[in-house]
Each structure stands twice: as C-alpha cells, then as structure tokens.
Amino acid sequence: MNRPLFIALDGPKGTGKTTLLEAVTQALRADNRKVIRLCEKKSDPFRGETMALVNHLARNPCQELELKVCARLADSRAWISRNVLPRQPANSIILIDRWYPSDAAFRRAVPFAEILQMNRERNVQVPDLHVGVVTSPDTSWARAAARTRGLGSTVIRRLDEQVACTEAFERAVADHGWVLCRNEGTVEDATQQVVAEIQGVLASNNL
C-alpha cells in the first residue's frame, strides 16, 4: 500500500456505529493491516465553539444558524484534512467516526447538496469509501434508551425526530451511492459486509 485508505463511517445516533468500528478494526488488524482510528469531534480543535452554536441552534432553530453550524463543521474538516490526515502512515487504513455524510442525518433546514458543496469548496478530503450505518428508527431509539447516556444528541430528542433523521440519511445514501450497512442483525454480519467492501476498494486501487 503506498497511501492511506480513508474510510468514513456515518449514520444516525444509536445505530451501533462505534461498536461496528471496533469490530472492523479488530478484523482488519487480524489480517495484518495497519489501522488508524480517528474521530471527527476529537480531531477538531474548534469543536467547543461549534457545539456552543449547536446548542444555541437547538434552542432557537433557524436556517441562518444551521448554515453557520454547517460552515463551521466544513471548516473543521478542512483543517483535519490539512493537519491530521496527511500525518497518518502511508500504509495504513484510516477509519474515521463521522465525516460530512453525517450532516445528511442531523441538519434540517440546509439541503445536503448545499452542505456537500461547502465541503468541496474547502477541499475537505473525500473518503475512498463512505459507509452509512443504519437501523430502523425504533431499533436505534431502543438501543439508545438502554444506554446510560441515552441518545446523547443535542438535536434529536423525540422518536419522530429520529425517524426523520434516519429517513433523510437513507435518502442521501441512495442519492450519493454510499455503501449502506443495515446493522440490525449480528455485529459479525455487519463487520463482514464492511470488511468485504474495504477489501474491494483495496483490490481495485492495488493497495
């Protein structure tokens, strides 16, 4: 492999994405692949200021504020693209927990096409593989309810909002040709699907 392979896992809250990331990491490492795990929010030095704006948006929803949130997130991804991703080993597989596809789930007033354009204009790095992790809204809602921290979302507070979040994300997955991973069965099944997709990208790029 002569360059890193960049893979983003995105989706609504409560779909088991973090558990799946860990399982995929272990499976790839068992195959002697060097895997780097990154998290968008932990790599973002401006996250505190952005979340303050997100909290303000949650109390005062409007398109103007949401647009500012989208722009701040795109700026942060551009910073990560310049300052974090290039530092990763050339022979690695980078798995990132959330990237711009997640905006398709969480934003309501700004069309995703506009969000995507923001990211492109800022030269945000495009993943070699987008994986959208979904479940039925009832499943993700029930999983979240069983966790100590609950859904852990600033913008989603009701089941009907989770339904809208999931439907919007699935539309974006279909519109943009991302890989859809339905994580309602066993973690092993979902892991096999994602690892097979990664191996396909590796083979097609001779990596």
Automatic annotation (TrEMBL):
Keyword Nuclease part of the UniProt annotation: no
Keywords for this protein: Kinase, Transferase
Top-level taxonomic group: Bacteria
Matches recorded under SUPFAM superfamilies: P-loop containing nucleoside triphosphate hydrolases
InterPro entries per the UniProt record, alphabetical: P-loop_NTPase (IPR027417), Thymidylate_kin-like_dom (IPR039430)
Keyword presence, Kinase: yes
GO molecular-function terms, A-Z: kinase activity
Transmembrane segments: none
Domain spans labelled Thymidylate kinase-like: 9-192
Protein name, as recorded: Thymidylate kinase
